[in-house]
Write a structure and sequence with these properties.
By secondary structure, the chain is of the alpha+beta class. The protein contains 27 helices and 23 strands. The protein has 4 domains: 200 residues, no CATH class; 171 residues, no CATH class; 38 residues, no CATH class; 160 residues, no CATH class. Helix content is 40%, strand content 14%. It comes from Umbra pygmaea.
């Protein structure tokens, strides 16, 4: 088959030879060389030669004698279509079926008919590529002791096409649609007034463009755009076919065309058997929280133990040995486990510095790893003393954010109703009996850790020993009994405080101090909501802290020049100044939270580890050029007392202070205002000195926006 544009296809007698075995340098007598064959490479049809295969047709039934009506090709896609006639006079042809198919495809009209004789008298063959890489395939012809090889451009498999059935279905759908369209004119009227939605396409991103190019619809559209090239078919015995077959022979027998086959034996062997390249097999990436035991056992023993403990966090020694490779020495495992874990109630708990390495921080609060390790070590030490601990009691001592405290407890305990957090595993007494030397060594290690924790957190072990009093046994009482016990404790506490206050007033009266109306003692609790009472809950009193701080109160000294009130340290003043210079407006509740975080980040034994009451904190704020802003919160406000105490930096020494004064005076009359009100008031008070940039800076420093209104920082009520 040939065409005017020199597109060629293979002929039936051109075949793919079996691989030839050449004995290149055999010197053995039992395998002599029988014949040498010269091989030539023909290139005349190298880019035009195709091999056709008919996989649904037996090799004994060729299409050589069947009339080929038309042929066409898409060279880029290597797609070929052949139309072949069907012998309608054959006794194997069913005439009624042929007529029915023609009627379904073409209908009763004669326009654009597929079958002109009202009968299926032809069929179409469509090709698909058998392989995309034909570099290893060629067509060869043997003549006069010479082998001429021509590379193949493509190998195509041709199968019957049933596109005529699609055409018949399309005709049927068109007829049904025409019938439905003529049933009612009302439907047409409704279609006339149907709204049309207009959409404008937005610019296509590069990622979207790549997805579109790789989509099936785009590829199909691209293939359909390539035009067909029509060919003229020539049979096997045609003179043009004989002429084209001559190009299968090498035209220049001794020329430079065959330089590709001039190879040394070593090069030829390398071409036949290229060196094997090892392909890198990428290991599947599993979830970050899944540990592969197959990969784990390839690690050194110490890394195996460390990886297991880091993932599990709490484990009995027997379970750890069960995860090791069978035959692993238990003594070696025991030596490794002591490097990465501590013994708690006979079970091994991973060390804090393994979970929180140096230079890392908390994912919740950003607290440094060193501070986290101290807090977690305290939790672990508490579980060496008792089975259950109270979360509030732990948080009051280590002074870390609630999220971090919860993480510590979840590593090694589970919550129990009315019992706090209980250690995760039962005590493993069998291990301690079997390994008394390890248990004793771990006990000595815990004593050293305990002494360090007592210095850091300023507590003694005696303060944490549970006492057999009604308050400690309240967890076992019923609800009514617990309520009665709480009322009784509150009444006794109130009576004790009243007695102490009366004694103090009598002592001051004897010393000539005026305690009448209008004059109050410095350390006397003030009523009327000016000073909030300290946290005197049973948990706070039990561990010797007030509001989360140690309750070492100052004794009033009338000769210290401050009326018996404690003097704030320079470190506390520096903290307050730095806080307000950064935020300008802070509520008392936020100051206390920031101060707790500041304490947790300090090294052990710092001078700030002393009792800091709410009153001292407020006095220090007022001493640092700050002022309390009396924000008129609404009656239905849910803000706590500490949240309603709002302080602001009043004097910074810069001219912008007067802008802040105007803003604070506005918020003393209303807890929320609009921007235009603030801008108008600033213009009224300061005139040309107030600009839009000043208003933007003022709102950024002191306020937050919510629902179109502006609030002072920390006063937003959702």
């Amino acid at each position: 088959m040939a065409a005017s544009d020199s597109v060629q296809v293979a002929f039936p007698e051109v075949f793919l030879p079996q691989p030839l075995h050449f004995n290149m340098a055999s010197g053995e007598d039992d395998d002599p060389i029988i014949q040498e064959i010269d091989v030539y490479l023909a290139k005349s049809l190298a880019d035009k030669l195709y091999l056709f295969q008919y996989p649904v047709r037996p090799s004994s039934m060729t299409y050589d004698d069947i009339s080929h009506l038309s042929a066409k090709i898409k060279p880029k896609q290597q797609k070929v279509e052949l139309e072949m006639a069907i012998n309608t006079l054959s006794p194997n042809y069913c005439r009624s079926k042929g007529e029915q198919i023609a009627l379904n495809v073409d209908g009763t009209t004669c326009e654009d008919s597929t079958y002109s004789v009202k009968m299926m008298d032809k069929q179409t063959f469509t090709s698909i590529q058998a392989t995309t890489n034909t570099s290893r395939y060629a067509a060869a012809i043997f003549r006069k002791g010479e082998l001429h090889v021509t590379p193949l451009q493509g190998i195509l498999q041709l199968r019957p096409s049933f596109s005529y059935l699609d055409k018949a279905d399309s005709k049927l759908r068109d007829r049904e649609a025409a019938n439905e369209a003529g049933d009612s004119s009302q439907d047409e009227a409704e279609e006339d007034v149907k709204a049309v939605t207009v959409r404008f396409s937005r610019p296509e991103s590069e990622q979207a463009r790549q997805r579109r190019i790789q989509s099936y619809d785009f590829l199909q559209k691209k293939h359909a755009e390539e035009p067909w090239v029509h060919l003229h078919y020539h049979s096997i015995n045609d003179g043009r076919s004989d002429h084209e077959r001559q190009y299968l022979y090498c035209q220049t027998m001794g020329g430079s065309e065959n330089t590709e086959l001039v190879k040394t034996p070593k090069e030829y062997l390398a071409m036949l058997m290229p060196p094997v390249t090892e392909e890198k097999i990428e290991k599947p990436v599993g979830p970050s929280n899944v540990l592969s035991m197959a990969q784990l056992r390839t690690l050194p023993l110490g890394d195996q133990v460390k990886t297991l403990m880091k993932n599990v966090k709490v484990m009995p020694f027997a379970n750890l040995m069960g995860l090791m490779t069978p035959g692993t020495d238990s003594t070696a495992v025991l030596r490794c486990i002591q490097q990465v874990a501590l013994l708690v109630q006979g079970n091994w708990v991973v060390k804090s510095d393994v979970l929180y390495p140096k230079n890392s921080c908390s994912p919740h609060s950003g607290v440094a790893a060193e501070v986290l390790c101290r807090g977690r070590d305290f939790v672990m030490w508490r579980f060496t003393q008792e089975r259950s601990v109270m979360r509030k009691e732990i948080a009051g001592i280590i002074k870390l954010p609630p999220e971090d405290v919860k993480d510590f407890l979840e590593h090694m305990a589970v919550p129990r109703i009315n019992r706090g957090w209980e250690f995760l595993l039962p005590s493993d007494n069998d291990f301690m009996k079997k390994h008394p030397d390890v248990a004793q060594r771990q006990q000595m290690l815990w004593l050293g850790i305990q002494s360090k924790l007592e210095k850091v957190f300023n507590f003694s072990k005696e303060d944490l020993v549970p006492k057999k009093d009604p308050s400690r046994e309240a967890v076992h009482m019923s609800g009514d009994n617990r309520l009665k016990a709480a009322h009784e404790r509150a009444r006794q506490t109130q009576s004790t405080l009243q007695t102490e206050l009366t004694a103090r007033r009598q002592g001051q009266a004897r010393d000539g101090v005026n305690t009448g109306a209008g004059v109050r003692v410095k350390d006397e609790p003030v009523s009327g909501g000016e000073e909030e009472p300290m946290d005197t809950s049973s948990a706070a009193l039990a561990n010797g802290s007030v509001n989360g701080y140690p309750s070492n109160t100052w004794s009033p000294d009338p000769h210290n020049g401050h009326g018996g009130a404690p003097v704030p340290s320079p470190e506390l003043k520096a903290f307050i100044l730095n806080t307000f210079r950064k935020q300008f407006v802070v509520s008392l509740n936020e100051v206390k939270r920031l101060f707790n975080l500041h304490l947790a980040s300090l090294p052990p034994g710092h001078s700030l580890f002393q009792s800091i009451s709410d009153r001292l904190l407020q006095d220090t704020i007022l001493m640092c050029h700050c002022k309390q802003i009396q924000v008129p919160f609404p009656a239905q406000s849910t803000a706590s007392a500490d949240e309603q105490k709002v302080f602001a930096m009043w004097e910074t020494g810069e001219t912008f202070d007067k802008h802040r004064h105007v803003l604070f005076e506005i918020f003393m009359k209303n807890y929320r205002v609009r921007r235009n009100v603030i801008q108008a008031r600033l213009t009224q008070e300061l005139g040309d000195q107030s600009t839009k940039a000043d208003v933007d800076r003022l709102l950024k420093e002191c306020c937050v926006s919510y629902g179109g209104m502006w609030y002072l920082k920390g006063t937003v009520q959702s």
